[in-house]
Amino acid sequence: MTPETNTMTPTITGDTILKVEHLSMKFGGLMAINDFSFEARRGDITALIGPNGAGKTTVFNCITGFYKPTMGMITLRQGDGREHLLERLKDFEITKSAKVARTFQNIRLFSGLTVLENLLVAQHNVLMKASGYTILGLLGLPTYKKAVGASIEKAKYWLDKADLTDRADDPAGDLPYGAQRRLEIVRAMCTGPELLCLDEPAAGLNPRESAALNTLLHSIRSEGVSILLIEHDMSVVMEISDHVVVLEYGQKISDGTPDHVKNDPKVIAAYLGVEDDEVDEVIAVELEGGDR
Amino acid sequence: MEYFIQQLINGLTLGSIYGLVAIGYTMVYGIIGMINFAHGDIFMLGGFAALIVFLILTSFFAGIPVALLLLVMLIVGMLMTGLWNWTIERVAYRPLRGSFRLAPLITAIGMSITLSNFIQVTQGPRNKPIPQLVTDVYHIGAITISLKQLIIVAVTSALLFAFWYIVNKTPLGRAQRATEQDRKMAALLGVDVDRTISVTFVMGAALAAVAGSMYLMYYGVSNFNDGFIPGVKAFTAAVLGGIGSLPGAVLGGLMIGLIESLWSAYFTIAYKDVATFVILAFVLIFKPTGILGRPEVEKV
Amino acid sequence: MAAPSENTSSGLMVKAVREGIFAGVIALGMFILYVGIETYQDIDNRLVWRTRWGLLAIFVAVAAIGRFLMVGVIKPHLDRRKLAKAKSGILEISEEKSFFHRHFLKIALIALLLYPMASVWLFGTQGSLKYVDNFGIQILIYVMLAWGLNIVVGLAGLLDLGYVAFYAVGAYSYALLSAHLGLSFWVLLPLAGILAALWGVILGFPVLRLRGDYLAIVTLAFGEIIRLVLINWTDVTRGTFGISGIKKASVFGIWSFDVGSPNYFPKAFGLATSSAYYKIFLFYVILALCLLTAYVTIRLRRMPIGRAWEALREDEIACRSLGINTVTTKLTAFATGAMFGGFAGSFFATRQGFVSPESFVFLESAVILAIVVLGGMGSLTGIAIAAVVMVGGTELLREMAFLKLVFGPDFTPELYRMLLFGLAMVIVMLFKPRGFVGTREPTAFLKERKVVSGSFTKEGHG
């Protein structure tokens, strides 16, 4: 554990779980993220939206440690008040100690392992400790056996939530697309996160699968887990999120409740692809509309 | 100083040979992403073809000019290995393309074992010596340069130029580069991918045959086992230079040649191969894609 | 030329003949120099040549006829069968497994336990030597090595081309430590394993962040470095001469197999003096070591570390996103695999009584890797079958003295051993790219243990 974790004076107040400050990420000469700041509140579903290539996934990769940001500070505050500077942690430590879990835009399951095994791998760190780093587990100590029982119960719980109990013993690669998405999400949940980052969870789902996903996300939120999600589809975002941050060309253009963002002329311009000087016109139209 | 330059010349000669073999590795790796373990043995086959042609020609035409002799050796060797590599790709690699990644690697190792043992069985396990083909030596001060060395460097440079031209300036080369970038897309755009890959194997084999003939001329001896060590070193050269990169393969080959001759000259000859491998390990640890390789971006 | 109706038999025959001729021409081109011409040294030690047209004709004929049969007879036959199967609409999945199939492991274990006794009974004490040593012990050593490498390649998906290095570390650890410190086999066996594991960590640490083929080439390089050091560090290793007179293993220090010793094993049991008893003892030792390897592998697969290895093979990035420290996970796989290589190495040293760098060439690594892949990565049963087929099969060639009667007295079947081994590697891969057993057993289940088809499992990138 890094010394910053405990000794640092709290920089985040109240119910903020994640605070991103002045984040910048440069690839070669390209500024993918430019001085980007936002906060996510505990228990909320925060959505990060923006047109293609706005840098949403890059922000995600910075938060979850897959990229090291060029500049900026990412602070995570756990429920017990401990704080972590995510940009200083390695990717696996972010999940292991800072309790941030993530999914991927192009689903990354262990396709040759069964659904149940996928969920057990996600409980690696807990089980590792319980097995005394393998050595005690080889001897078959009861504490390890108990931990294994608990891990299977946890897996069963999430299988039920994701409506995958019937497929538990099938290889993950054999599941239909929507089920693979849900499995990836509950697999992330099995790491016991406080913040769950979802990279376009609704992409490519049919309406029925979308509905199943929404149910799953709501039940995750009701467990008290905060969600940060990237989404492309505005309608999905507006429906489920509490707070929306809009990103364009690596910069924040809007931040607020879904209603606020929906009516933000800059957002409309970004999504409709209007020239800068036309934005004023759009605003004018909006104002007129507001008068009525 | 003279001693150093002398070693430099020896190293460059050896490095040219490694570079030629390394190109075969790097091209095949670039285009289908597999380590063609049998390539070292293709090099050995090339050497044997040259050896047999030499024996036949000198027994029929005793006074044949050396230049003509060398030319025929090279051409027959290139045809021979081209045919072999073409067949090997057809029979052992193509059916496994797109399958399990380790499967072609295992068939390649199997082919390597098969080829060297095939030569052992058909031509015998003993060293095959031939008389010196080219004996002229030039002295510049205290430095000695043999005509052999000049021929090797000249032939290598000429071939490299021809090769660079093919890859960069001809439709065939364009097809190769396209296939390397994205096989499916190339096929959709009308590139005959199978043929392009076959041609790549034939070209790589032809260069290996030249290297094999040069090796025979330089050392005057062939053995069925000669594929392995030069093969591994050439592969090392390809990785060192950045696998997939043609200039990298040549650069890597020259570096390996230099490391070997300089190490032998200034330290102990016993550990020259250890030195090569240790340097390889260090380069890969600190710059995993080799000297001229494109950096690999991890896609999340 | 051939009519568009290639499915008619005459059209097929024309095609087959054409392909056959083509194959013959290609074969002629390929073999004309290497088979048609023989180079040899005459009495003056000068290299000369003679022709072998007869042999060349055989090669060409085999290629042409083989291709003709393949295109004209075998392939249509296979296609017809496939078509018939598709038409009948019955998927061939037999739920009923035969008695033999269900109890395969038990039967195999009992057969192995009885094997030395059976060969003594069948061939006499002295006659059993060949069967126990050349076949039994030899195959079991490869089984153990392949099972050890399986942890690295099959489970964790890390391509290791230098596994033989750990085998060498184990063998030399035993040879040197028993000579200098006089420790016994049973003390040095675990020590050799630990030393090999240590080397696994030392070599693994810097290279494990490399991926795929880069890792393969660096492990190959390390394998060669260790071998070259063994050759050149003559003060310690005696170079290419090797170390001989390595102490034999004893029956846990109670009975010895040194003929002069007072508690010489056959004497203690009133048996005639024979080296066969030592070999039988060694057979059981290596069998026990193999079983240990299998047991540990099976147990580890069901533990978090084993699951993490398999997850690593499937998707490394996903592993990292789940909080798994991939570096230590890879290192443990490397070290565990190396440890079993070390055990096998020290056993090899005590069995041979002699070690030299000759035994630890790249070819050995390739053979072990081939056994793992041919068997089916991750499958212990498949790997054991592959070891029996590949090692036993080539070992069998030594026994084929009757071939001398067919091919003349100059014919030495051993010469063809590695040639056939190489060809077999190619052919097995072509027909079974995922190895003999391509399926995967899940390590945990809720309702039923369903076998995972090979088409889902990945082979790793590192």
Automatic annotation (TrEMBL), chain B:
Membrane disposition: Multi-pass membrane protein
Record key words, sorted: Amino-acid transport, Cell inner membrane, Cell membrane, Membrane, Transmembrane, Transmembrane helix, Transport
Annotated compartments: Cell membrane
Pfam family of the protein (one): BPD_transp_2
TM ranges: 12-35, 42-62, 68-88, 100-119, 139-167, 197-218, 238-259, 266-286
Family: Belongs to the binding-protein-dependent transport system permease family. LivHM subfamily.
Name the record gives this protein: Branched-chain amino acid ABC transporter permease
Organism: Neorhizobium phenanthreniclasticum
Upper lineage: Bacteria, Pseudomonadati, Pseudomonadota, Alphaproteobacteria, Hyphomicrobiales
